[in-house]
Design a protein that fits this description.
The complex is a heterotrimer. By secondary structure, chain A is α/β, with parallel strands linked by helices. Chain A contains 10 helices and 13 strands. In chain A, α5 links the parallel β6 and β7. The relative contact order of chain C is 0.15. The chains are: A alpha/beta, B mainly alpha, C mainly alpha. Chains A and C meet through β5 and α2 of A and α1 and α4 of C.
């Protein structure tokens, strides 16, 4: 059993009295793409800075393929921050040279290929690029070293939809070649497409961590409309397979955690006028998760 | 490149289930022939822009259901024996769900049994009549 | 060698050396056989054609040029911290990285220093003045370079210790150092405190060296033999750089 490409265990980071990350445990396996979702301030960026060693965690351990972070780890690890950081005074071509000299696995052909894909002119100075182009350069550099671990913070910001799709293709290609990808995004649709796993953070805590398909299989809404007064739902609410129950007039909605069919049968036994099961996509699951207190 | 699959990641239906159904449908309808090779996991993932692990899961389940055969190094192929049977069965499942949904919908709208039958007959007449005409 | 720093230094050197070159050129082209007065506050020496000047007399000017360059070069670690997303994700240990930057920077400071010396020699030759290397020249050259490097190291360590205002601090270190020199002339508590600061003030080892026909007269804050002074400035240079190399990797945003 090989160690996960990224293992985070019990990560906690406090800034004074403010807890940015609270006991986060998350693994990302090689070949997997994990999307990190969460409202602003949920602790995603802090998690990344802890992962990369920019900030010392208050508690917890971080390992890459079983080993702690070391300079050599960066031979096969790429990071793309939210606001692409570049050497403003250097040209794109000079950035490539810097990478060629620093990284063993740098692939010039790949880098040129990516520059062409993003329509970047290597002679341009980084300081003169638009936000989207800066992101494109950062992505080019990140992928040019053929990494085994990719950590990206909002990799699509500033990119037009065509390039955004290309970024997803790059991530999928990397994962298909065995890389582990951890990326945060506000574009839930992108995570839904490219990621197989999702981790949702809220106020520093990890509230959901699951394979996306399993999440969609389990989390559904069973909606029942009753003629007349609503039956007693307390017993139902105690069912561990139900996350919560919503009432609106004569309609009852049970948000299930798993086994929605069996829950539906249970509700059917209460003789509703009509009953149906509603599938939830990731955006709806996400909204549910962050808008209420999950246990 | 055989049948082109479409999946909707925004749907609440898990991607892998969608794709499994798509493959079975393609086999049942003949757009994927017995013995035909399926694209590699990587190629299909890139083609659809979906996660490779999801595609890998699809292929695993299809193999478990007896629809395809995967041999390492050679690839994944539609089974020449019984693959189509399972595919048709799966397609029948999908159709059954659709009928179930329609009947349940009718019931919740207050249709009587006789009215439900009537509507169903009318739908069948409309769609299958076109066939006999042609 | 750290390629990033090499690229940076190449750019900044072009500027500084270009200006130095232009100045020298201007003197060569527009200078006449006029006399140059050197006024250090106590006496005035005239430089005229046919005169011989000891090499060590040129070191303060060269040191001045090099120290100006050192001020900008000394912000390099701070600047790298600003792009730590790039710099700290390289497969090199951070302190090794810092050491490499410093190596490139110090080499550049030395280059500016040597070229400045050469420029002065050339400029003086224009006026028919010959520069004579004497026995103590080498010691003073090494000392002069040491002051420039100490200045570099001082800027480096200041920007490391007081991160966010780093670059601005590099600018006001000059006035602070000069004021400190002035305050050293006072007596009492102020003078004592000024002297404490003067321990790490590169200018304190330099100020007020008067050269005349009889040699050098010491008016530095720290009255020490030339060898000891050279040792002192290089010691502090190494110390500050070592501290910077140790502290810089530990910075947190």
């Amino acid at each position: 059993m090989t160690a996960p490409a990224i293992s985070i265990h019990g990560l906690t980071k406090r800034f004074g009295s403010f807890t940015a990350v609270d006991d986060l445990t998350l693994d990302v396996e090689p070949g997997s793409i994990c999307g990190l979702l969460g409202p602003n301030g949920a602790g995603k960026t802090t998690t990344f800075t802890c992962l990369l060693g920019f900030v010392r965690p208050t508690a917890g351990t971080i390992a890459f393929a079983g080993a702690p972070l070391a300079p050599a780890t960066f031979q096969t690890l790429s990071y793309v921050p939210e606001r692409a950081t570049l050497y403003d005074e250097f040209t794109i071509a000079e950035h490539l040279t810097i990478y060629r000299r620093a990284y063993k696995r740098y692939d010039e052909a790949r880098a040129r290929e990516l520059l062409a894909m993003f329509d970047l002119d290597p002679r341009k100075r980084a300081g003169k690029l638009s936000k989207g182009m800066r992101t494109a350069v950062a992505l080019t550099l990140a992928f040019s070293i053929r990494p085994e671990v990719l950590i990206l913070d909002e990799p699509s910001s500033g990119l037009d939809p065509v390039h955004q799709r290309q970024v997803l293709d790059l991530l999928i290609d990397a994962a298909a070649n065995g890389a582990a990808v951890l990326f945060s995004s506000h574009q839930i649709g992108q995570v839904e497409r490219a990621a197989d796993a999702v981790a949702i953070m809220k106020k520093g805590k990890l509230i959901v961590s699951s394979v996306i398909d399993d999440l969609k299989t389990g989390e559904k809404i069973v909606e029942a409309v009753f003629a007349g007064p609503l039956p007693d739902l307390d017993a139902l609410a105690a069912d561990p397979r139900i996350i919560r129950i919503e009432r609106a007039g004569s309609t009852v909605r049970a948000v299930t955690r798993e086994d929605s069919d069996e829950v539906a049968q249970r509700i059917f036994a209460l003789h509703p006028k009509s009953i149906r099961t509603i599938d939830l996509n990731l955006e709806e699951i996400f909204m549910n998760a962050v808008s209420e207190d999950r246990t | 490149m055989p049948a082109i699959f479409t999946v909707d990641p925004r749907s609440g239906v898990p991607l892998y289930l969608q794709l499994i159904e798509q493959v079975k449908r393609a086999i049942a309808l003949g757009s994927l022939q017995p013995g035909e090779q399926l694209p590699t996991v990587k190629a299909l993932a890139l083609d659809l822009t979906v996660n490779p692990n999801t595609v890998a899961r699809v292929y695993r389940e299809l193999e478990r259901d007896g629809v395809i055969d995967t041999s390492p190094g050679r690839g994944s192929f539609v089974r020449t024996d019984g693959g189509a049977v399972e595919a048709r069965r799966a397609v029948a499942d999908v159709a059954q769900s659709a009928f179930d949904l329609a009947v349940r919908e009718g019931k919740s709208l207050g249709l009587s049994r006789a009215e439900a039958h009537d509507l169903m007959a009318r739908a069948i007449a409309r769609w299958y009549e076109m066939e006999t005409d042609a | 060698m750290e390629y990033v720093e090499f690229l940076r230094v190449r750019r900044s050197l072009s500027w500084h050396l270009g200006i130095l070159g232009l100045l020298t050129l201007a003197i060569l082209v527009f200078g006449h056989h006029a006399a140059i007065n050197i006024d250090d506050g106590d006496s005035t020496s005239r430089i005229a054609s046919g005169m011989m000047v000891p090499l060590m007399a040129l070191t303060p000017v060269a040191m001045f040029f090099a120290a100006i360059y050192a001020s900008t070069a000394g912000t390099s670690l701070n600047r790298e911290f600003m792009v730590r997303d790039l710099a700290w994700t390289k497969p090199i240990a951070r302190n090794a990285l810092a050491l490499r930057y410093i190596a490139v920077d110090v080499a550049a400071v030395a280059l500016v220093y040597v070229l400045a010396l050469l420029a002065i020699v050339v400029a003086l030759a224009r006026f028919g003045v010959t520069v004579v290397p004497d026995a103590e020249a080498f010691g003073y050259i090494v000392f002069g370079l040491g002051v420039s490097v100490m200045w570099y190291a001082l800027v480096q360590i200041t920007t490391c210790l007081l991160p966010p205002r780093g670059l601005a601090l590099a600018g006001i270190l000059w006035p602070i150092a000069l004021v400190d020199i002035g305050l050293c002339r006072l007596s009492g508590t102020t003078g004592t405190i000024a002297h404490v600061f003067a321990i790490v003030n590169p200018l304190a080892y330099m100020s007020g060296v008067a050269f005349d026909a009889h040699g050098a007269t010491e008016k530095a804050i720290w009255q020490m033999p030339a060898d000891e002074r050279a040792l002192a400035v290089w010691f502090f240079s190494a110390l500050f750089c070592a501290v910077a190399v140790t502290l810089w990797p530990r910075r947190e945003a």
